[in-house]
């Protein structure tokens, strides 16, 4: 049986062709030379970061495969040159779906060790399930703790955060430009997807948010994995919500309540209106928190 996350991604991919005429990318300048590209008109994958200048073009994540042409048009409009490097923030197909397409156009893929290892071992998710990852899908440069890029007048620190959304997450910190790309370590205004089956954890997710908060100032521009461009206050709201949600559910688990009992009690009811969405509903967030809280989950 397919896991829920794989089923959801397969569904997104199956409807992608029908959405192509509606999809476009909205550009938001985060700092000179650094742009956030957000898919609008339908689900195009996670938010992209585009960093360009006289030294070349760097793309942070590359969206879903059906939208390669649309993405390339947006990159051309804002960078005016081909992409030299792609940084993968994590392994999910809505963020690395165009690795192969970008690689075949000459881009070098950079990612955490665990991303390459998972792609080699597990393959990629297509419309019909798991398929072997092609040579062009695989990152050519990998890192353990982090790597730093010095291009276009900026220093970009690519920093691994452990057992957060997955076990291969990276955040990208432009200290001099005061910009942070969070990947799916941050869902702005949405319950997060914490992929326990890919090495993620609730405590690791919260620790990653705390790490980003320690880097951010009151004027820092933040690119979330999903949701609109954000500020530090948005990140604080997400961290506080997750801590409260975690503690409520763990208290019920400690009392001996089972998963269905806890879901029925609806301990996250007051978060539903503001945080629940189509992929991670209040019920699904609750079940993730229960599963994470149980030994040997």
How does this model look, in words?
Helix content is 36%, strand content 23%. It is α/β, with parallel strands linked by helices and 297 residues long. The chain has a single domain, classed as Ribonuclease Z/Hydroxyacylglutathione hydrolase-like (Metallo-beta-lactamase, Chain A), CATH 3.60.15. The protein has a seven-stranded mixed beta sheet with strand order 1-2-3-4-5-6-9. A five-stranded mixed beta sheet has the order 10-11-12-13-14. The protein has a two-stranded antiparallel ribbon with strand order 7-8. The protein is globular.
Q: Can you describe this structure in just a few lines?
A:
This protein is α/β, with parallel strands linked by helices.
**What is CATH's topology name?**
Metallo-beta-lactamase, Chain A
Query: Strand-residue fraction?
Result: 15-25%
Termini distance?
18 Å
The neighbouring-strand order within the major sheet is 1-2-3-4-5-6-9
Number of strands: 14
Q: Could you name the CATH class? A: Alpha Beta
- Secondary-structure arrangement, i.e. CATH architecture: 4-Layer Sandwich
Uncertain spans: 1-7
Please trace the helix and strand order, writing H or E for each element: HEEEEHEHHEHEEEEEEEHEHHHH
State the shape: globular
Mean pLDDT, all residues = 93
Largest sheet: 7 strands, mixed
Give the class from helix and strand content and strand pairing: alpha/beta
Give the topology.
Layout: H1 4-19, E1 24-31, E2 34-40, E3 48-53, E4 56-60, H2 68-79, E5 85-87, H3 93-96, H4 99-104, E6 108-112, H5 113-122, E7 124-126, E8 129-131, E9 141-143, E10 146-151, E11 154-161, E12 169-174, E13 179-181, H6 202-215, E14 221-223, H7 232-254, H8 259-265, H9 272-275, H10 282-293
Parallel strand pairs: 4-5, 5-6, 6-9, 13-14
Antiparallel strand pairs: 1-2, 2-3, 3-4, 7-8, 10-11, 11-12, 12-13
């Amino acid at each position: 049986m397919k896991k829920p996350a794989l089923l959801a991604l397969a569904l997104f991919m199956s409807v992608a062709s029908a959405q192509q005429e509606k999809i476009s990318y909205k550009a938001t300048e985060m700092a000179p030379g650094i742009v956030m590209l957000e898919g609008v008109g339908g689900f195009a994958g996670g938010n992209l970061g585009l960093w360009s200048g006289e030294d070349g073009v760097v793309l942070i994540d590359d969206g879903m495969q059906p939208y390669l042409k649309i993405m390339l048009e947006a990159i051309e409009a804002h960078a005016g040159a081909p992409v030299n490097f792609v940084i993968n923030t994590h392994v999910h197909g809505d963020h690395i779906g165009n690795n192969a397409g970008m690689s075949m156009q000459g881009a070098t893929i950079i990612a955490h060790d665990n991303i390459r290892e998972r792609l080699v071992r597990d393959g990629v998710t297509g419309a019909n399930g798991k398929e072997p990852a092609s040579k062009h899908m695989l990152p050519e440069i990998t890192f353990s703790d982090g790597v730093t890029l010095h291009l276009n007048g900026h220093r970009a620190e690519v920093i691994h955060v452990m057992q957060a959304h997955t076990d291969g997450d990276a955040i990208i910190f432009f200290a001099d430009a005061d910009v942070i790309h969070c990947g799916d370590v941050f869902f702005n205004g949405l319950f997060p997807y914490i992929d326990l089956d890919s090495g993620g954890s609730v405590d690791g997710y919260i620790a990653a948010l705390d790490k980003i908060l320690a880097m951010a100032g009151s004027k820092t521009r933040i690119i979330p994995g999903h949701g609109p461009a954000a500020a530090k206050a948005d990140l604080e709201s997400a961290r506080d919500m997750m801590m409260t949600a975690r503690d409520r559910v763990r208290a019920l688990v400690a009392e001996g309540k089972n998963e269905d009992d806890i879901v029925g009690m609806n301990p996250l009811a007051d978060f539903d209106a503001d945080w629940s969405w189509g992929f991670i509903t209040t019920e699904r967030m609750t079940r993730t928190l229960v599963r994470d809280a149980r030994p040997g989950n």
